[in-house]
Amino acid sequence: MDVAEALSSRRSCRGYLPTPVPADVVERVLALASHSASNSNSQPWQVHVVTGAAKRRLTEDLLKAYEAGDRGREYDYQPPAEEWPEPFHGRRQAFGHTLYAEALGIGRDEPERRLAHHRRNYDFFGAPVGMILTVSRRPRQGALVDAGLFLQALMLAANAEGLATCAQASLIDFSPVLRRNLRIPDDQLIVCGLSLGYADRDHLSTRCRTTRLPVSAFVTFHEAEDEYCGT
Ligand SMILES: Cc1cc2nc3c(=O)[nH]c(=O)nc-3n(C[C@H](O)[C@H](O)[C@H](O)COP(=O)(O)O)c2cc1C
Which family does it belong to (predicted)? Predict the structure, then answer.
């Protein structure tokens, strides 16, 4: 798979087969992701990988906190649903409609079914491998850029191996559980979770197809209007 295909065919997967992912494959995609660029090659990322009994224990703890409403997000990852500004609010609504109504067949008037789907985040959507990505707080906010590059590289490397992924910010709603369970020290900022495994192509969620804006919507080309060419 070339880079263009890896980029354009990657999509978030929310339904996995129970088929285990061989440890050497997991290690290979992590090694590939480690080629990501980072500020002064600081490589501030850390990854916690959970499989088998460790994943079951983590899911059990997360769901216990979920049922108890015992949330504990440690930083302002995103605005509350009602405070998203335009144009992002509209895009978020469109995504919600694509996933819930079009793919999963869940209406706006079915909050319980919506919650049941959301709850599956905490089982990594049934994927055999769960990951928690953290970055050191010490290099400051720039480390989050490096973490984003690492995350994208990880998802592309997995795609090229025939594996599916879904980045999961929903996991940071339960950061204290993640810290306790995985012994994540305070100087590590929890960035997000990631599901990794083989896609269950029969799962309804695989019908979710997101769209993208054209280049003209997000790029401003500054062309030289005279002899001055910036040299
Ligand atoms: C940092 C990050 C966090 C995300 N968190 C979640 C999440 O918690 N649950 C989920 O189902 N999808 C999550 N997603 C997936 C996005 O909804 C998805 O990337 C977006 O809708 C575009 O769709 P695509 O990945 O299929 O192209 C997350 C994606 C990113 C990059």
Answer: Belongs to the nitroreductase family.
**Is the shortest distance between the CB of 12 and ligand 1 below 6 Å?**
yes
**Residues present in the chain in total:** 231
- pLDDT tens digits for range 25-48: 999 999 999 999 999 999 999 999
Sign, CA torsion 59/60/63/64? negative
Q: What is the pLDDT of residue 224?
A: 77
In CATH terms, the fold of domain 3-218 is: NADH Oxidase (3.40.109)
What local confidence, expressed as pLDDT, does residue 228 receive? Answer: 61
**Is residue 152 in contact with ligand 1, taking CB distance under 6 Å?**
no
Q: Which parts of the chain register pLDDT below 70?
A: 226-231
The pLDDT value recorded for residue 229 is 59
Report which ligand 1 atom has the smallest distance to the Cα of 14. 11
CA angle 206, 125, 23 (to 5 degrees): 105
**Boundaries of every domain in the chain:** 3-218
